């Protein structure tokens, strides 16, 4: 949002001292970068910061109260809230003073890491930062209400920096969230295609959920390496749990079956739903060489037959 | 082979020839391999041929074609051919290239490894059904 170029407050800097790009009407050339701003702007900002430091306790409490009123951060205990609001407040003032958001970014990421697992939502995080902005703005109104010109200048210095802070915190939070989501996606993907040995030389691959091309690719990899590792002769792929497949995935599945056969394993596909069967026939995948059986039970029986197993039920004595 | 380390070794085990390819072969080396192997089938009166390709991380269409030709020639000379040890990536790449396994019969059969290949030949010899056997046609 607010850019990095050193600028001056609208009326804050004497023109001879202001850098050439410190355009008076450029609202983004904010005075938060107090060092570059000339005498008056810098003075105003330090005055503003001194004000915020002086009233730290009062403003912070007011802020915490507003958070509670708005029913935000209900997942946190009052004690944790007090600790976090203090840190946020101090970080906030620091950013106003130095104009550098780096430390805040770190803190926001760290904070997000702690609160995301507890179910804190994006709107809450953005909400509390905006509340702090409002609380501080109100206190500035109060302090400078006699002098509108001065108030204007102070707000010129304050607003861009405050917006930038809100922006930084929100972006950090969302970034962290996305990182967590990515991590979980990886975990799900890893768990999503298990290759299970049921008997010597017999593998089962239950497929649950929609097969997209990425998962299909992974399935192939897992299956072929699984055949090698377990020296499998028969593989049962059960797709009872998969609602639908598209043409690409269907073709991929056929190729996987063919590749398995090249490695000396025969594949039995079980649990084709009516819908998938219809799809496969409609798109014309060549299934003539595929061994399909209605359900997993039948598939296992067929696999056992291929491997030469006979399963017999032991006669139970009449006592049962 | 031209003084260098052997690229292929062909061993006899009873009535079976075991040809193990040690490294990637170029086209002329493949042709020579084909020639040597088919000649040895006659010399040893072999009934089965196993070609171990576990060391290959690529089987291109010419190599696949050559293996198929070998199998066909071996059949004409009275031996059955099994290709063993196809790596997972290779298997999938071959299918991708359109080398589909055929239902059986006159095409190359494949098996997981040497042990499986020998077992497959044994059942074939004793007249059993070629259980789990698969092959491909280009």
Layout of strands and helices, then pairs:
The complex is a heterodimer of chains A (320) and B (138).
Chain A: H1 39-54, H2 56-69, H3 78-98, H4 102-115, H5 122-143, H6 148-192, E1 196-199, E2 202-208, H7 213-230, E3 234-241, H8 247-262, E4 266-270, H9 274-283, E5 291-293, H10 296-307
Parallel strand pairs in A: 2-3, 3-4, 4-5
Antiparallel strand pairs in A: 1-2
Chain B: E1 8-13, E2 16-21, H1 27-44, E3 48-52, H2 61-76, E4 80-84, H3 88-96, E5 108-111, H4 114-125, E6 134-136
Parallel strand pairs in B: 2-3, 3-4, 4-5
Antiparallel strand pairs in B: 1-2, 5-6
Helix pairs in contact in B: 1-2
How would you summarize this macromolecular structure in one to three sentences?
The complex is a heterodimer of chains A (320) and B (138). Chain A has 320 residues and is of the alpha/beta class. Chain A has helices at 39-54, 56-69, 78-98, 102-115, 122-143, 148-192, 213-230, 247-262, 274-283, 296-307; strands at 196-199, 202-208, 234-241, 266-270, 291-293.
CATH class designation of the largest domain in chain A: Mainly Alpha
Number of strands of chain A: 5
**Rg calculated over all Cα atoms of chain A:** 33 Å
Task: Report the span from N to C terminus of chain B.
Answer: 29 Å
Q: What's the tally of helices of chain A? A: 10
Assembly type of the chains comes to heterodimer
Overall CATH architecture of the largest domain in chain A: Orthogonal Bundle
The amount of beta strand of chain A, in percent, is 5-15%
Q: Please tally the helical runs of chain B, counting DSSP H or I stretches of 4 or more residues.
A: 4
Helix content of chain A: 55-70%
Instruction: Provide the low-confidence segments of chain B as ranges.
Output: 128-133
Number of domains of chain B: 1
- CATH domain fold name of chain B: Transcription Regulator spoIIAA
């Amino acid at each position: 949002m607010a850019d990095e170029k050193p600028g001056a407050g609208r009326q804050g800097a004497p023109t001879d001292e202001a850098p050439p790009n410190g355009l008076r009407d450029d609202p983004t050339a904010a005075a938060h970068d107090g060092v570059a701003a000339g005498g008056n702007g810098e003075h105003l900002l330090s005055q503003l910061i001194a004000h915020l430091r002086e009233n730290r306790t009062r403003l912070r409490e007011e802020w915490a109260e507003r958070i509670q009123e708005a029913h935000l951060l209900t997942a946190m205990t009052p004690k944790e809230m007090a600790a976090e609001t203090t840190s946020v407040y101090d970080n906030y003032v620091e950013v106003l003073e130095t104009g550098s958001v780096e430390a805040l970014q770190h803190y926001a990421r760290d904070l997000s890491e702690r609160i995301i697992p507890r179910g804190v939502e994006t709107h809450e995080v953005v909400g509390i930062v905006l509340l702090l902005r409002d609380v501080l703005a109100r206190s500035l109104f109060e302090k400078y209400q006699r002098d509108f010109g001065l108030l204007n200048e102070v707000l010129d210095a304050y607003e861009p920096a405050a917006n930038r802070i809100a922006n930084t915190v929100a972006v950090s939070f969302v970034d962290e969230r996305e990182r967590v989501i990515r991590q979980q996606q990886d975990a799900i993907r890893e768990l999503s295609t298990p290759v299970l040995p049921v008997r010597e030389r017999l593998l089962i691959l239950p497929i649950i959920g929609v097969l997209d091309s990425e998962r299909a690719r992974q399935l192939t990899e897992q299956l072929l390496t699984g055949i090698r590792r377990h020296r499998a002769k028969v593989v049962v792929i059960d797709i009872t749990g998969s609602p639908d497949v598209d043409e690409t995935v269907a073709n991929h599945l056929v190729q996987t079956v063919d590749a398995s056969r090249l490695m000396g394993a025969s594949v039995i596909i079980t649990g084709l739903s009516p819908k998938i069967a219809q799809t496969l026939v409609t798109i014309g995948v060549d299934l003539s060489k595929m061994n399909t059986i209605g359900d997993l039970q039948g598939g296992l029986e067929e696999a056992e037959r291929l491997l030469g197993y006979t399963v017999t039920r032991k006669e139970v004595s009449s006592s049962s | 082979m031209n003084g260098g380390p052997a690229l292929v070794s062909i061993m006899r085990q009873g009535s079976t020839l075991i040809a193990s390819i040690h490294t990637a072969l170029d086209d002329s080396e493949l042709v020579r391999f084909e020639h040597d192997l088919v000649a040895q089938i006659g010399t040893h009166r072999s009934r089965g041929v196993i070609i171990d390709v576990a060391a290959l991380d690529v089987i291109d269409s010419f190599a696949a074609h050559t293996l198929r030709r070998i199998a066909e020639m071996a059949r004409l000379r009275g031996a059955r051919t099994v290709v063993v040890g196809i790596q997972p990536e290779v298997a999938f790449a071959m299918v991708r290239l359109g080398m589909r396994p055929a239902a059986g019969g006159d095409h190359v059969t494949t098996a997981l490894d040497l042990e499986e290949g020998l077992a497959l030949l044994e059942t074939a010899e004793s007249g059993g059904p070629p259980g789990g056997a698969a092959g491909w046609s280009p």
